[in-house]
Amino acid sequence: MELINYLLKKLDGKLIQTHVSWVIIPSDRSFVLKIKKPVNFGFLDYSTLEKRKLYCQKEVELNRRLCRWVYLGVIPISKKGEDYILGSEENVCEYAVKMRYIDPERLLINRLNTLSEEDIKLVAQRVAQFHKKVPTFGDFGKPEVIKYNTDENFEQTKPFVGVTIDRETYEGIKERTERFYRDFEKLFLKRVEEGKIRDGHGDIRLEHVAFLPEGVCIFDCIEFNERFRYGDIINDMCFLSMELDLYGRSDLAKVYEETYKELMGEKDEEFYPLLNFYKAYRAYVRGKVTSFLLNDEGIPPQEKEQIKEKAKRFFQLSLDYLKRVYP
């Protein structure tokens, strides 16, 4: 934290922390620095300086695909005596992603009450254009690969049955998911053959979409693990519409989905079953991750009650989507 405290003082900055990064916003908002924490969670490994440099470079490269105006580059941070110097290649002790500051008012999450159908159509167009250009990775669309992810989810949520998800909901989601693999195996394989498994964004969420003067910017993609970024294009696009449903804007979710479907030339009989399956998957993952917060001893009891309710909403939403395929 010595480096972080130094930069906060030098830049008169504000600190925002995630479980994997320190984000420093200078008081003049002239730029933003994002520094990766030296952590290793298995699926994510920032434990060495070399790895943090590599993933900083990947973050800039990958995010420029959908947000080239924001990602300014990777800068080294050097130590000289008691001082830290930004941009110096001598005695490098850390690396940071340098970004342009985005006004929170430009984020989709903060525009839910004023967002128009034309706005959400622009987002769908941006995602569709992106998906048409990125490379394909067919193996990640095979049923056994996708099933590995859903099986992992069910295993990891077992401790939360009776806490954030009741037994009936858990079994209902699990049974319908397994039935979907049996009934739609040929469709999964067809998607692979048609090149619909691509290197996507991996985390298209409400807080990762910004309306900038230059256009729609979708930032903060997953750079640390390809398994979480490669997949069916419907799985990539639908994270956003799942969250729109969650926040009571199913009207906009529908516009987003229909616009995307038309632009990508998707067939109804393939698009809608997969859309509900993958929205259920996304909602379940969010329910799982939210449940994990209950294990954090630093979170006060009152806040944990709110976390429980939020997780329950995600799990219920997951079941609701699957019931559209299997009433």
Keywords:
globular, six-stranded antiparallel sheet, two-stranded antiparallel sheet, alpha+beta, single chain, Aminoglycoside 3'-phosphotransferase, Chain: A, domain 2, 10 helices, 327 residues
Order of helices and strands: HEEEHEEEHHHHEEEEHHHH
- The count of DSSP E runs of length 2 or more, i.e. the number of strands, is 10
| Tally of separate helices | 10
**Nearest-integer average pLDDT:** 95
Overall geometry comes to globular
Question: What's the number of domains?
Answer: 2
Helix-strand category: alpha+beta
CATH architecture of the largest domain: Alpha-Beta Complex
Q: Tell me the fraction of residues in β-strands, as a range.
A: 15-25%
CATH topology of the largest domain: Aminoglycoside 3'-phosphotransferase, Chain: A, domain 2
User: Describe the biggest sheet?
Assistant: 6 strands, antiparallel
Strand order of the largest sheet: 1-2-3-6-4-5
End-to-end Cα distance, whole Å, is 53 Å
Which parts are unreliable, with pLDDT below 50 for 5 consecutive residues or more?
Answer: none
**Radius of gyration, taken over Cα atoms and rounded to an integer in Å:** 21 Å
Q: Name the helicity range.
A: 40-55%
* Highest CATH level, the class of the largest domain: Alpha Beta
